[in-house]
Specification:
246 residues, methyltransferase, Class I SAM-dependent DNA methyltransferase, SAM-dependent_MTases_sf, alpha/beta, 7-stranded mixed sheet, transferase, single chain, methyltransferase activity
Length: 246
């Protein structure tokens, strides 16, 4: 782990795209870019946690000017090396507090990145930072899962989500603090290697309150990027909060 790059240091960046290859599939990525381009209109887009540019690069290819904030130089160096990487601006810093020049039509966080902020204060700061960057009428978009606490029987804190011959993976929850972690044990040449990633899970209603504290209001919430209705059974959501126009 690199202290400078947080948990997304060189060892993670080197295989990150391959580890989320399914997220590059057109059926996943195209609706994501479609919605963000629509919300951007003719304006600029700001990505919090831009990483290796999975979303930023195809969005920029649509003609949307994109800037990103990320703490990891290891991750963003992969973005810069990709075709079109020179068209996307990147600022190194904590996206909960780092400011960049200008205003934006849309700011966004994808693929559970809000959970990388491991305190409620940092998540609240993130909403305030988004609002500060948005022009009047601009939108803040988050894609994040719904906490899967319904899978926890009494007395259990761990939920496995991968078990196979090459290793296993499980999430660990602390319902008193909303802290959680994803844990991976992988067999490499017959020996186990362990990776641990800390998060803080957050509820849709809690996010709405954070938006309200930042002066924004909920405009839309769907189950996913193709705008399916969000229901009691939804395991994730894409939510859009709007900064008042006046």
């Amino acid at each position: 782990m690199s202290d400078e790059d947080g948990v997304f240091g060189e060892s993670v960046a080197a295989h990150y795209d391959a580890s989320v290859a399914d997220r590059f599939a057109p059926e996943v990525l195209t609706p994501t870019v479609d919605l963000l381009a629509e919300l951007a209109g003719g304006g600029r887009a700001l990505e919090f946690g831009i990483g290796t540019g999975r979303v930023a690069l195809p969005l920029a290819a649509r003609g949307v000017p994109v800037h990103g904030i990320d703490v990891s130089r290891a991750m963003t160096s992969r973005l810069a090396a990709k075709p079109g990487g020179d068209t996307v601006g990147v600022t190194i810093g904590d996206f909960a507090t780092t400011r960049v020049p200008g205003t934006f039509s849309v700011a966004y966080l994808v693929f559970n990145t809000i959970n990388n902020l491991t305190t409620q204060d940092a998540q609240v700061d993130c909403f305030r930072n988004a609002a500060a960057h948005l022009e009047p009428g601009g939108c803040f978009v988050i894609e994040v899962g719904v906490p899967e606490l319904r899978l926890l029987p009494p007395g259990q804190r761990a939920v496995p989500f991968r078990v196979d011959a090459d290793g296993w993976a499980f999430d660990v929850y602390d319902t008193a603090t909303q802290r959680m972690s994803s844990n991976y044990v992988t067999l490499v040449d017959g020996r186990p290697e362990y990776e641990h990633y800390p998060f803080r899970y957050v509820w849709p209603s809690e996010l709405d309150l954070m938006a309200r504290l930042a002066g924004m209001r909920l405009r839309d919430r769907w189950e996913g990027w193709t705008r399916e209705p969000f229901t009691h059974e939804s395991r994730g959501h894409v939510s859009v909060w709007e900064k008042p126009a006046g």
